[in-house]
């Protein structure tokens, strides 16, 4: 048990969580007459509501902007969910770090235990919170797993639609690779990398044996994006790769010739990137996805 995840009945005298005016956020957000609306003093403002100057010189409320973007009915559970996210951001907590206990969240937010539990269940589903039974709540990995699961389900939801859902995913992945071409070329021109060379050789060996190489494919694409400053590119690519890999089995086994074509495309992508040839890189990227898109179109 970590110091932050203290026992429910052992509150610290100067608990920073309880000192945070979340009760005021609850009071201004919750429906009139609810427990949350009765908690705290109306005249205080949550730090998230602090006015800040916009680009055009006007004053905007951060909380107000978010309210405009996310228009949803406010419940005690939604207040609790936003409060937990605010706490993670304000305390700059990282994945794996402990969160306050359930009773401390209830007291700070002025909401019921059931509302906190409902909020936590939602945040767990979003991979923002992780619950370790017997140990408490922790910041989750905040990964793209929820998006992956949703897209995989979408791809399998209508089996009679000629794989339109899967085709959409593959087209988005291919478009992302094409869009990243200038960044990849800039990063890899004249650059040697034994790891990438080894990955391509592993692909080739498996293809010659009639085997698939999903793991090598993932490693190849993530390695190509590793030198890029924007790490979100890697996360998005990995997410779409996961969707791609989980749904492709719906098509059955690929033709041996298609497997060999895919290996050659990877080899050509690497060679073009090192040569600084963006057009050759884009052509190789198109060849990489061509067999699968053809199977999705004719299948």
TrEMBL record:
<dbReference type="InterPro" id="IPR036388">
    <property type="entry name" value="WH-like_DNA-bd_sf"/>
</dbReference>
<feature type="region of interest" description="Disordered">
    <location>
        <begin position="1"/>
        <end position="61"/>
    </location>
</feature>
<protein>
    <submittedName>
        <fullName>L-lactate utilization operon repressor</fullName>
    </submittedName>
</protein>
<keyword id="KW-0804">Transcription</keyword>
<dbReference type="InterPro" id="IPR000524">
    <property type="entry name" value="Tscrpt_reg_HTH_GntR"/>
</dbReference>
<feature type="domain" description="HTH gntR-type">
    <location>
        <begin position="74"/>
        <end position="142"/>
    </location>
</feature>
<feature type="compositionally biased region" description="Basic and acidic residues">
    <location>
        <begin position="1"/>
        <end position="15"/>
    </location>
</feature>
<dbReference type="GO" id="GO:0003700">
    <property type="term" value="F:DNA-binding transcription factor activity"/>
</dbReference>
<dbReference type="InterPro" id="IPR008920">
    <property type="entry name" value="TF_FadR/GntR_C"/>
</dbReference>
<dbReference type="InterPro" id="IPR036390">
    <property type="entry name" value="WH_DNA-bd_sf"/>
</dbReference>
<dbReference type="Pfam" id="PF00392">
    <property type="entry name" value="GntR"/>
</dbReference>
<keyword id="KW-0805">Transcription regulation</keyword>
<dbReference type="Pfam" id="PF07729">
    <property type="entry name" value="FCD"/>
</dbReference>
<feature type="compositionally biased region" description="Polar residues">
    <location>
        <begin position="26"/>
        <end position="42"/>
    </location>
</feature>
<dbReference type="GO" id="GO:0003677">
    <property type="term" value="F:DNA binding"/>
</dbReference>
<dbReference type="InterPro" id="IPR011711">
    <property type="entry name" value="GntR_C"/>
</dbReference>
<keyword id="KW-0238">DNA-binding</keyword>
